[in-house]
Hints:
Blueprint: H1 2-15, E1 20-23, E2 26-31, E3 34-38, H2 41-47, E4 49-50, E5 62-63, E6 69-72, H3 77-83, E7 91-92, H4 107-123, E8 129-140, E9 143-145, H5 151-160, E10 165-176, E11 181-193, H6 198-207, E12 227-231, H7 235-239, H8 243-252
Parallel strand pairs: 6-7, 6-8
Antiparallel strand pairs: 1-2, 2-3, 4-5, 8-9, 8-10, 10-11, 11-12
Helix pairs in contact: 5-6
Amino acid sequence: MISIFKRVNRLWQSVFRHKRAILGPRSLIVKGNTLIFYILLKSSYQSGYNSQNYANNSSKITYKQIIMNIILASSSTYRKQLLSKIITNFKCASPNIDETPHKNETFIDLAKRLATEKANAIAIKYPDTLIIGSDQVACVESKQLHKPKTRANTIDQLMSCQGKSAYFYTSLCLVNSKTNKLQTSVERYETKFRNLNEQQITRYVDSEPAFDCAGGFKMEGLGIALFEKISGDDPNTLIGLPLIRLIQMLEKEGVLVL
């Protein structure tokens, strides 16, 4: 909308004395001091604007899409795969921040801080860009679950979770590096582990190694067999990126997935 008025301002002197002038695909009618835009259905489709509601309310123009560069502040292949479900054109950049928890920091605060620091670290390098930061902190009771890294650690960690409830706090931060606007959220997911024996746990670990996943399992795969129940608003949250919340954040920035 702003770009349209800029174009009109530049050409105003040349069209002022005429009753009618043509600017690109849009017709302009000048009558007295009133400038009325008639956005044709075909041209609005070609120019990227949605004029479906324009006939009912000539004072309102709805954007169909705002094009901005989008960067995922992560080197995680899982988050990249999740984001590609809703967005096809984006880049990834590793923020390389210190993820050491602060003293007396809660799991929720830790997750939120890490997502924000990741996004801000990339925002400094890329102006006029939307940056997505995310992190996940998992815990059983008061113990944080880490990426086990090795087969033995994975088996030990999963055995310690049997019959217990585990909580996953997946944080999200969307930064507009042009306006410095920041949106944050922490989504909670609760899981209840089944009571499995060591042979079953070992069979799972050997079938589906997940040494680089918090908790040591892949919920989107065979890992679902480890659980008695799961509870949350968005299953993508448990995998590593809350897509439902992200879509809402993107819409506030004028980026529409649909």
